[in-house]
């Protein structure tokens, strides 16, 4: 009954096997391994983007910060949601990699950026000429930190506002697979067809040991990205072990199978929670994260049964939690959690 | 017959097995996995340093750049060898992580820093008061880029010069295991007993997929390091897979077995090369890197047999190469190479 | 009738004379001029701070950014008002000089930071451990961007909240003189007695060509500041011309005379505006900045008479403006403006 | 008898007068003063560059560092002379403003970069692909730190090597006027006609209080420069006082008159020194800096007469000095110095 985070799950056996297979003999280092050639083509096919530049890094923070640094000058802004991962959970990595760009926080319910608020924030920015920071880029997150999902239309609306102001668009897809499963959209629909220029395509939260792809649909700044990656210490010499994981992830739709299980378990858990008296959900459950609230006392009952999750602040008399399901969550975990909660 | 680099070798089966074992169930993320607790203690024991702060990162560039940033202010210098990895092969990562510290290049034969040159460089630095950059720290490399080894006494001599000027000392130990095997020194003798404050303890070049430890003997700046690591994107959520590799590396002296094989193969190769007429070695072969020079024509012969290595510039009529052995180099590779060279 | 900004005014004749006097003969460069020795002592006396480290720079942005960089690590935050000059008008200079620290915006009416909001912002910051940026320092502005003034008590309240969390306190005193005149407080009461660690003590907006002092009451990080100043290009070789201006500014209370005239003209203007039907003031007028609002049509009338000021956005049917008085504003300017407004 | 530095001289009366004249009434801030419009046109005329972007800053370090940051990416290099001011005397300002670019030091006699050494340094740089820093720009200094002068031909030779490799060229002209006077070249011949893209056109060392122009012959990156200038704290609100100084400097060839006097005094001093037995000059005296060497004992004699200058290291039995003349050096100073030296 582990619901603390999808980054605490094991990896599926296919990933271990892929590492073992990739381990044979010598391989050229620094991304010149044949596995990377295959991964590049698989991702280009998947995104229907035959020209895309594709790179692998090991953490989501890296994928985001390097992509943003390539899209945003030091004296510019990144427009992002108030509670975006890049704003709250990366210890200032975007500021570090951009050499001090400013994150402009844009509000919106349930983790989704409000289009009107985005437009206003863009309008306000740079209006003071040389005295203020200048407009840089937009970063949208899918799945959001609130566990909600942006549809391609919603992304297109936000990206359209940015592009109308001349700004490139980044998608933080640490849970891209969960968003794809939730919406039924294709990767192309969710990204470049909706106006996205660069994607952090997550693998780690959905079953890899630590692999994320960064995809630029326009390869114009690919070389700059490569230099930034190396300079940041993120170019792996034994790169084949990143490639192997990503190849296994994409092969036979494994990435979608994994995300489907995570989302399914979240849906079951949401259904079960909703049926319990006194239990409410702060945000719509659209992917694999839930924010339930219940009456005081349940934390103790749950922890007594070994449930692991992060408690959240709640009003007096109530308790709240963040629950995350993953590819390895089993129905029995959900049932056990609900039973413990029921008391 | 692969002698291009030790970063192109596979990993030993123990590493794959360790990953499989570590893959069971859930594990706390971000270095709070029990495997990291074991690794920390193993490294403290190995270095006889019960208070040491120990961290894992995935690349050598990261280990070096983060360690240096913790030891050196932006307006200070890093004293290093003219051909140090941090100076020539990291695309400015030390400058990036330190926010612009200056690498002061110190010469010395065969990749080893000359003590007199170091003393002069330190004396010169900061003499202009506020107008020039200030003295920062010393970084020594062992094994050097020339394939030579610093003995503990030599490190102590260099570190002593630095410490007399109040400067902390970093050891880039990307091939630390090879240096230990070459000298017979203990890890403590090679580091803190010789005046070293922080070590990049390499695993990747000696058989891991991508794991390096950073060790601070004085834990005073450990929290700063943790923040810099996160901010740099180098804190792994599924950290257990780093821990598992390092644990397997240290268990039963595997790390020394691997390095012994690499060094042994280099010694055989050096012996064989020396016996060939017209073949010379630019630097003493003390670990697992060789810089042979031979008469024109051998490149073609070697490549025809499938030998892989990096050619080097050479005088007219001659050819040169850099050859690197690793834990996976077999005697047959050495024999085959020598046979092809013999022609 | 120039009310656009106090940075468009000329300098008083004493400043020109001081430059002429300082121009005799040779003077040691880089702050070693005897004038700087006198300035240092004058400022220490004025602030009753015999140990204070005192430096001169040429712009307010520099004074703020260098002071903040000395007080705040790259992975930390600067707590400041939502509309602080450092947040809106310095093109990211604080982010640049700190190497990417994050400005956390704290709300509050009329340009003054709300103590409760500050406490909440501090409580929120760093709560996520290594994943989020850490608490850095507090920056308070006096006079505020809204033209209001913090009393020493109000500064002490804000500083007390910061210091209880272990955070140092910076005061952006670009209009320090106007705040002193408005409150009747002594410089010591307004700063270190209220818990302030470092001050940007402005001269430029109050009659100098471009001179600001940075004062650290604890000189512990003075040398770091000197290196940062030089590295930022802000150490003047012919420093005597900065010293001479500041000396003239402080001599015989000139700085207070200048600020008194500015505040007096603002008070007269405020009184006149308040007496006009349909004219309102958005913020209390406590120093030398006014934010009046009036019925549509007045802009045209005012501009026809040659009045210069910045219009501000206003609701339909209304117009708004920012008016700034300075030492060189004459009563006739105020009367002329009011007459034109009256129509 | 002050020969310590040209930055210790007073300013000529024309500069004080210009400040007094510029002080009348209100002036638009931040470079929108009419004086700046005049200065821009004067500099464009002087350099025969009607499209040039022209900016004023207050220090030479700033002019250099901002120009270089606009010409060089963080992962690139600045090729400069081993003893260039940007390498030795700016406390790492270029590294700070470029966010960590690397200065590659190129040797050459008497402060002039050796063309062959430059070609080799460029060839070496970037050869390692993504692992090493990339070629950025060339920075040449005129007058050099050794007091020698580059002719337009010599600059064209160096610039030609850089441009053949696709690199832009910066000229550090802190003593540009002295170089112009020494060579008789026109400003255009010394800069864009010789392949220079951007110039730091110094005023401070040649008689201004603290004003340098930065000139870009191609205005493409002018807006970036403006943002970097503001973000660095180098945009003056009361900009008219910079403009006024520069205008006075350029009017009626004042800048050349000042430099002529400095160079003339240096030539006389050199002539006098050469005539003395046992006195040698380390570098040709071509502008206003001299590096004499003499027998032990003269320092004491000179200082007894009140001569002020910087002593330099010298071989046993000898003493050395750096002497700098300026616009305010009088023939009597030269005579007095020589008399004291003669003993």
Q: Could you walk me through the main structural features you see in this protein, from its secondary elements to its overall organization?
A:
The structure is a homotetramer of 343-residue chains. With 343 residues, chain A is an alpha/beta fold. Chain A has 2 domains: 13-252, Aspartate Aminotransferase, domain 2 (3-Layer(aba) Sandwich); 255-342, Aspartate Aminotransferase, domain 1 (Alpha-Beta Complex), CATH 3.90.1150. Chain A is built from 14 helices and 12 strands. Chain A has helices spanning 13-22, 34-46, 60-71, 85-88, 93-97, 115-124, 152-164, 176-183, 187-190, 222-231, 240-250, 254-274, 298-304, 331-342; strands spanning 53-57, 76-81, 102-106, 134-141, 169-173, 198-202, 212-216, 280-281, 289-290, 292-295, 310-312, 318-324. In chain A, strands 1-7-6-5-4-2-3 form a 7-stranded mixed beta sheet, with helices on both faces. In chain A, strands 8, 9, 10, 11 and 12 form a 5-stranded antiparallel beta sheet that branches. In chain A, helix 8 (176-183) crosses helix 12 and helix 13 (298-304) crosses helix 14 (331-342). The longest helix of chain A has 21 residues, at 254-274. Chain A is globular. The model of chain A has no long low-confidence stretch (mean pLDDT 97). At the A-B interface, helix 1, helix 3, helix 5 and helix 10 of A face helix 1, helix 3, helix 5 and helix 10 of B. Chains A, B, C, D: It is an enzyme of class 4 (lyase). Chains A, B, C, D: Belongs to the threonine aldolase family. Chains A, B, C, D: GO terms for molecular function: L-allo-threonine aldolase activity.
């Amino acid at each position: 009954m582990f619901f603390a985070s999808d980054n605490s799950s094991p990896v599926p056996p296919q990933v271990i096997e892929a590492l073992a297979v990739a381990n044979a003999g010598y391989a050229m280092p620094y991304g010149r391994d044949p596995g990377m050639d295959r991964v590049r083509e698989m991702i280009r096919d998947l995104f229907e983007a035959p020209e895309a530049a594709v790179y692998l890094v090991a953490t989501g923070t890296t994928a985001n910060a390097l992509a943003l640094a390539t899209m945003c000058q030091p004296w510019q802004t990144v427009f992002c949601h108030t509670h975006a991962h890049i704003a709250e959970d990366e210890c200032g990595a975007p500021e570090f990699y951009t050499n001090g760009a400013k994150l402009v926080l844009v509000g919106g319910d349930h983790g989704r950026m409000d289009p009107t608020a985005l437009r206003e924030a863009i309008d306000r920015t740079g209006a003071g000429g040389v005295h203020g920071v200048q407009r840089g880029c937009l970063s949208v997150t899918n799945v959001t930190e609130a566990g909600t999902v942006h549809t391609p239309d919603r992304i297109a609306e936000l990206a359209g506002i940015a592009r109308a102001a001349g700004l490139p668009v980044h998608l933080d897809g640490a849970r891209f697979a969960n968003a794809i499963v939730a919406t039924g959209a294709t990767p192309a629909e969710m990204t470049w067809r909706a106006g996205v220029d660069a994607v952090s395509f997550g693998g780690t939260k959905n079953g890899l040991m630590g692999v994320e792809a960064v995809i630029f649909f326009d390869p114009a700044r690919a070389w700059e990205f490569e230099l930034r990656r190396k300079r940041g210490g993120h170019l792996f010499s034994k790169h084949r072990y990143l490639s192997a994981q990503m190849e296994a992830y994409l092969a036979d739709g494994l990435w979608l199978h994994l995300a489907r299980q995570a989302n399914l378990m979240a849906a079951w858990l949401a259904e079960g929670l909703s049926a319990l008296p006194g239990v409410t959900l702060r945000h719509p459950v659209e992917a694999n994260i839930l924010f339930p609230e219940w009456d005081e006392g349940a934390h103790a009952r749950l922890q007594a049964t070994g449930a692991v999750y992060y408690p959240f602040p709640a009003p007096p008399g109530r308790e709240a939690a963040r629950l995350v399901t993953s590819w390895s969550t089993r129905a029995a975990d959900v049932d056990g959690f609900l039973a413990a909660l029921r008391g």
